[in-house]
Amino acid sequence: MTRNRTGTTTTRAWRNWAGNVTARPARVVSPASVEELIETVREAAEAGLKVKPVGTGHSFTAAAATDGVLIRPDLLTGIRDIDRAGGTVTSEAGTPLRRLNAALAREGLSLTNMGDIMEQTVAGAISTGTHGTGRDSASIAAQIRALELVTADGSLLRCSAEENPDVFAAARIGLGALGVITAVTLAVEPVFLLTAREEPMTFDRVTAEFDQHVTENEHFEFYWFPHTGNCTTKRNNRSAGPAAPPGRVGGWIDDEFLSNGVFQVACSLGRAVPATIPAVAKLSSRALSARTYTDIPYKVFTSPRRVRFVEMEYALPREAAIGALREVKAMIERSPLRVSFPVEIRTAPADDIALSTASARETTYIAVHLYRGTPYRAYFTAVERILTAHGGRPHWGKIHTRDAEYLSGVYPRFGEFTAVRDRLDPDRLFGNDYLRRVLGD
Hints:
Structural class: alpha+beta
Number of helices: 14
Number of strands: 21
Strand content: 15-25%
Low-confidence stretches: 1-6
Shape: globular
Largest sheet: 8 strands, antiparallel
């Protein structure tokens, strides 16, 4: 059925990007304005229906699943304002990061840091703590200067470090538990150039030199290929230029043919015949050669990800991460597991956001993936057992089994977040099974 206004209401099943989460909401609504969104929230509350906003479904958890009203922000997009003097941009919540990055570049502006994909909406990315890697910056949420959200009583609440600061401390990574975000103000800076240096390195060398690489580079990350001693490293640093993007043919070979096309075939083969995975991993780990290129930030930070997968990621105290990674490697080597996807390692500085995975501590992320459709529980459970033993915090949008009891012990400001939630949504209008598990009732 269709609403009698610009926005639309439909009834259809919803599925996330990876296909591991499905939901059958009573209604799927796409409000065309903040006023329509407020009305939708009020109508749902009166009808006794839960409300959950959803972006592009790039989370692997059921954070957005509901049998009530699913709000799609497809019509709440675009840039509201650019404040060059203040160094900020205010974006509608449903704006895809891809469109935001391109629009900023046209204006000669850029975010300071971002994750490695840009298919998510602005609100979806910040709500689950999407991050990149960085010595001085990492998460998108840490770049937020203000935001507004519709709360359970239908009010439009604005918050920043000066206005409703307690809500601001929580809502920058709010899990959709505090309300429906309508707009986000992000810090931006004049567009700059990054030089990316990608090169192979052995596992033993990169882990031995990890602290050095993190200290010497603005953005450092590496991927380890299980069943091998091989890694691929990436260092991104600011450059005076000139721009020297990857050649059209070379870039296509690395980013599309090898990283997506050939990798898709390798993953499909590994899923069908797991015994082939170690041999394929050795070939894959040697396929990507060293390269250096220089371009504007979003073209360096992000890359296409067309091979679909499921993922678990944990944030560990910086000093514990390499030891934990070595434990993961040893576990895989002595087990019958066959792992077709590389393990990703990134870093972040400490921040002041209540439920940020980097809240109040220097952080290293360890992310494990498996090709979509591959049984993942045995692998993820074994890795999770190692990472939680080191005080790991799970990424809010990626598969994990932790609950409120565990999470309250690894987040010093957990109670601060739940207190804000109790005040803004005492009846749990924005609740669902996932939030009940990770935040409690």
